[in-house]
Design goal:
CATH architecture: Distorted Sandwich
Order of helices and strands: HEHEEEEEEEE
Radius of gyration: 17 Å
Largest sheet: 3 strands, antiparallel
Number of domains: 1
CATH topology: Beta-galactosidase, Chain A, domain 5
């Protein structure tokens, strides 16, 4: 394993996105997800759009209300941001995106 890790460049650890693909936004959310065994978060955009699925999971937090099996719970997410201008909610699906760039560095978990 050590030899494999030494061969990886710093860019091999990164997932990057340089534009918004409106037809692939949920796919990108899944691609940018990150977890460490205790906490996991779906890689959604902060500007939550209508079809977004902002999800955060914590190990050991389950719903067992009447079910025979435990179901992992999507806990409240403090990262969702809703922006309103003149009482109207801005949606990334409706606006022109001039610039967009995000990187998930899996080596540093950032």
């Amino acid at each position: 394993m050590g030899t494999f890790l030494r061969r990886l460049s710093s860019n091999d650890w990164r997932v990057s996105e340089h534009w918004i693909h409106r037809d692939k936004m949920q796919y990108q959310e899944a691609l940018f997800s990150l977890g460490n065994g205790y906490l996991g978060s779906r890689g959604f955009l902060e500007e939550a759009y209508e079809q977004a699925y902002p999800a955060t999971y914590i190990a050991g937090v389950y719903d067992r209300s009447g079910a025979q099996s435990f179901v992992i719970v999507n806990v409240p997410n403090p990262l969702v941001m809703k922006v309103y201008v003149d009482g109207r909610k801005l949606s990334i699906r409706e606006m022109e995106v001039v610039e967009h760039h995000r990187v998930l560095d899996m080596k540093r978990a950032m």
